[in-house]
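FORM 12-B: Structure-to-Sequence Request
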């Protein structure tokens, strides 16, 4: 956020969005529910902030702070002001909220795309129960490398002009490795252009790891230095095989585990993705233990969302969702495993200062072989898209002339503005717009507010790396 100069004689007060939490070891966690800026203090910061319960000028507060704590008072006051823990006395909650939204809206008028996803396969070799592709009839062909090449030809000059130093390219499907020939060609071209334009480029492949050829393992081994593999695995064997089955209805766990172990042996960065539901809720700790035993260092856990009435019976209750995430967090910490998921978006934005709208379309774009561009892979096959790709697309993004992008972001931020009309106008619980889209609701709704608030209260007491480590567009990971 833009920092304002603190003027001499300014009258200040505590932010209405301020949250303090003293841990058992005496450490105090402080953050703003609007601006984030989670900070740990090891002294009586709560007593210092109490000075601002009432309006107080800079000079008087500096004198009183020096009596409480031996520090340079003006430096501490400036820090608290820059982090928006204290604010100008004449500002109310609505003013601050509106100002914040306007700053964020202006900042994102022109996106800074750092993640690009190619939906390259129109087929899958599994028939998983509750697959999101069964909800929207995503009709697309296998992507051809010539079309992907056109996108890359515009993407890398865009990155150079926007001075974006790094790029993540992801491959999804249905099952992306069923179109391995195209995937490898896109990879090779992107590597060449990465070197030509000086853009550090990494790659991630999302796969069910059910059927991997020797050619694929050789390719993984050759390119392991800038490649990541994320394997879908929905729990221990008895749980996984209830949902992730082949076309004969047989469980796939044994074959996936065999291939997962082979992937790990290539020394490539490898993680697993589990979708939490009533099918695997009981055995969370056992699953984490088994993953640690085979050498998994990172787990992404998302929450199952059913679409048919039968599928909805598999959904966790609000209490179970929180409990599942809490248990997964504790068990992964026990084995030194990093832990992420789409649920983490609300937590991270609330306590580190991420912007209060989905980053889809602002930091990432998804390209389908039929030419349509989506702000997120979840929307593939829906009407929520940015139109058909054309060669002028990237230039229009830079110039602010891409009508589809402007419409998408306007919809998001207008919905955020709608939240300011509520009696309780903070943005706690802002969640993935996809959930709202599927329900036909306005993006300003708060369907997961209670869950998010529970998660925030829990994670605020956790080690800082358990909150923020490797937070990389988790809402995209929906296998």
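FORM 12-B RESPONSE
SEQUENCE OUT:
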């Amino acid at each position: 956020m833009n920092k304002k100069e603190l003027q001499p004689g300014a009258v200040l007060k505590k932010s209405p969005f301020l949250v303090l939490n003293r841990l058992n070891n005496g450490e105090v966690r402080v953050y703003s529910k609007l601006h984030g800026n989670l900070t740990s203090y090891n002294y009586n910061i709560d007593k210092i902030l109490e000075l601002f319960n009432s309006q107080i000028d800079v000079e008087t507060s500096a004198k009183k702070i020096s009596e409480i704590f031996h520090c340079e008072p003006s430096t501490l006051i400036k820090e608290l002001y820059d982090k928006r823990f204290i604010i100008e006395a004449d500002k109310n909650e609505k003013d601050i909220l509106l100002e914040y939204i306007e700053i964020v809206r202006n900042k994102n008028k022109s996106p800074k795309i750092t993640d690009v996803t190619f939906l390259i396969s129109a087929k899958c070799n599994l028939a998983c129960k509750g697959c999101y592709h069964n909800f929207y009839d995503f009709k697309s062909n296998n992507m051809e490398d010539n079309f992907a090449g056109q996108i890359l030809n515009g993407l890398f000059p865009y990155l150079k002009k926007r001075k974006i130093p790094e790029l993540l390219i992801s491959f999804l499907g249905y099952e992306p490795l069923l179109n391995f020939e195209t995937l490898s060609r896109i990879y090779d071209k992107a590597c060449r252009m990465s070197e030509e334009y000086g853009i550090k480029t990494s790659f991630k492949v999302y796969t069910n790891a059910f059927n991997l050829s020797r050619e694929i393992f050789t390719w993984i081994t050759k390119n392991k230095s800038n490649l990541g593999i994320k394997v879908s695995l929905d729990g221990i064997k008895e749980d996984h095989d209830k949902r992730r089955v082949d076309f004969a209805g047989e469980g796939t766990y044994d074959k996936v585990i065999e291939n997962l172990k082979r992937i790990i042996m290539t020394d490539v960065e490898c993680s697993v993705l589990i979708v939490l539901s009533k099918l695997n809720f009981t055995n969370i700790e056992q699953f984490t233990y088994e993953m640690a035993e085979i050498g998994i260092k990172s787990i992404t856990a998302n929450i199952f969302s059913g679409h048919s009435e039968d599928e909805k019976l598999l959904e966790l209750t609000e209490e179970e969702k929180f409990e599942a995430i809490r248990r997964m967090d504790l068990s992964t910490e026990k084995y030194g495993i990093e832990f992420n998921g789409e649920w983490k978006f609300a937590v991270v934005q609330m306590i580190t200062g991420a912007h209060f709208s989905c980053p889809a379309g602002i930091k990432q774009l998804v390209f389908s072989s039929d030419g349509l561009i989506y702000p997120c892979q979840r929307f593939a096959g829906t009407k929520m898209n940015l139109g058909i790709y054309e060669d002028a697309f990237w230039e229009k993004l830079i110039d602010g002339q891409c009508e589809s992008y402007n419409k998408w972001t306007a919809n998001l931020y207008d919905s955020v503005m709608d939240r300011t009309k509520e009696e309780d106008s903070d943005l706690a619980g802002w969640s993935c717009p996809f959930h709202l889209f599927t329900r036909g609701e306005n993006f300003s709704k708060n369907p997961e507010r209670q869950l998010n608030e529970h998660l925030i209260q829990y994670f605020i007491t956790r080690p800082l790396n358990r909150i923020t480590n490797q937070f990389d567009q988790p809402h995209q990971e929906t296998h």
